[in-house]
Amino acid sequence: MKVVLVGYGKMGKEIEKILISRGHEVVGKATDAQPLNTEMIKEADVAIDFSTPDSVINNIEFLLKENIPSVIGTTGWNKSYEQVKLWVDDQNGALVHASNFSVGVNLFFKLNEQLAQLMAPYKEYSPGITEIHHTEKLDAPSGTAITLAEGIIENYSALSDWYCPESKTENDTESDKKSKNGNNLKINAVREPDVKGTHLIEYKSNIDTLSIQHEAHNRTGFALGAVIAAEWIINKKGIFTMKDVLQLS
Ligand SMILES: NC(=O)C1=CN([C@@H]2O[C@H](COP(=O)(O)OP(=O)(O)OC[C@H]3O[C@@H](n4cnc5c(N)ncnc54)[C@H](O)[C@@H]3O)[C@@H](O)[C@H]2O)C=CC1
Ligand SMILES: O=C(O)C1=N[C@H](C(=O)O)C[C@H](O)C1
Fold it and tell me: Which atom of ligand 2 is nearest to the CA of 146?
């Protein structure tokens, strides 16, 4: 397949290696210096976007108008989800998005939901999420941590929402940062040099702590998952997630 890379940073470069190893061709690379344009997508079968929270919505709108199926890995745009869904429907387009494209994290999402169901009756335990990423990351909490929080909240009736004291990009008002009432799940967002992505779920009581963790050792899993999603989305119509690609629903 012929692919346009939208964003050619840490992830764009990793995806290029996987594309070439699977016999695909990169026909365009959009960056902040050279944004998407009609010339760049002329030959493309599909676009893979790992850009920035500020640029991704314009990129999605452009790709839908140009009828190019897209894989969206960029995080930090959850508040625009309903708008994007409408655009996909209106344009009869094709888009697959995921806060995390790695197979390991998608299995971890399932495990997280099952653990929340198991823990829900035991009120002596308090759940919490910690995510650790590299210091260049623009959004906090991570998209993966938000998906994990939603998975807990859906299966754990004592919780109604999440909050993150270090919140950036979307929930960045002072009231969001302080909204730590009893029904809210705390996400700690930690930034350390060169960390690829670690997510820790803990249920703490006075007696003990139960925990599950996913730690990415490199970016290969994210990139491979995104390429598998690109191979899958061609000739489909609608809005999908990695759950659909992996048939984990
Ligand atoms: N869903 C997943 O599995 C994963 C998602 N991500 C997400 O992917 C995104 C990118 O991550 P990195 O590659 O680490 O960031 P990065 O900072 O290394 O690269 C970002 C790229 O976006 C480009 N860019 C900026 N404005 C643009 C525009 N208007 N049009 C096109 N490109 C533009 C920059 O020039 C740069 O090449 C982040 O939102 C991150 O959270 C990262 C890893 C895995
Ligand atoms: O920015 C990153 O690096 C990552 N972002 C994604 C997220 O926000 O969850 C996925 C992964 O954790 C790496």
Answer: 9
